[in-house]
Amino acid sequence: MARHELPATRDTVVNVLDRDTPPILTVDAGDSVVVDSLDAAGHLEPMRTPGDPRPQMFEDRIGHCLTGPIAVRGAEPGLVLEVHFESVVAGTWGWTLAGVKDTPLTRRLGVADGPASWLLWDIGDGTATNNRGQTVDIAPFLGVVGVPPVEPGPHSTIPPRAKSGGNIDCRELVAGSTLYLPVTVPGAMLHLGDGHAAQGNGEVAGTAIECPMTTEVTLNLRERTPVSGIHAETPEGRVTFGFDADLNVATGDALDSMLAWLRPLFDLDRTAALALAGVAVDLRITQVANDTWGVHAVLPYDAVRRRPVTPTTGSATELDLDPTS
What we know:
About 10% of the residues lie in helices and about 35% in strands. By secondary structure, it is mostly beta strands. It has a 9-stranded mixed sheet with strand order 1-4-16-6-14-17-18-20-19. It is globular, with a radius of gyration of 20 Å. Residues about 310-325 have low confidence and may be disordered.
């Protein structure tokens, strides 16, 4: 299969999602693409001091600076786009910002009126250190991975969408993960960007360590998957998602999809699947930063083991589930 290179230039980036944007690269299923992306704001160079205005790709920033769209030959609505992250490598610098947006959360915390607070980060091999001398471990991933909504016209990159992905901001989607996205438009038209060197579940400040990223993805198409909506297989386990302005609805959607996955895995009815989920499934707040909140459910691969009875001897032997099943 072919391996393509896609730099981030003025001709290869957008800051809206639109099904009618022409693809900047067309690949075959099974191909890999090495994608460069700028930070979410599209900075062309790092800040020298906190808040220092630096050149950006777009003079008037509308949304995230995303690389794409990438078209996949043969992708049609009804199929599923498989995005496997071969590698996710952060750039050498990043930033985090808090206290600039008036939301129920920032009002509750007493920071809605500012002043803004910046952290500037030097990113190295496995860690990042900020301008205040604090060091954290990094686990790079892309905040935005998605396809355009089926409706025509430009759409904001800010909210995640249950039918097309986008600004998912899920810290589980590190290298080695596979994200499954329903194909919404011919070609799929994948967009990638919003690199995060590190982020806590929730992205509670509204930003993570925002940074440039180089990501290699392998793209495939599937006719069917265990879950009808957006879901993932990560190094930790199986992941399902819920997105809604109401966290209760987002929670219910993430869990509903996880039950749909559990039932065939363990041959359970719906209520029994919920009982097992109560023991083995973690619910995590993905992000509360993007007006449409995110929740993801995680089933670690080793959380449940079966001891089937062999037909010949009647003895029980432990069976670990195949993570790819």
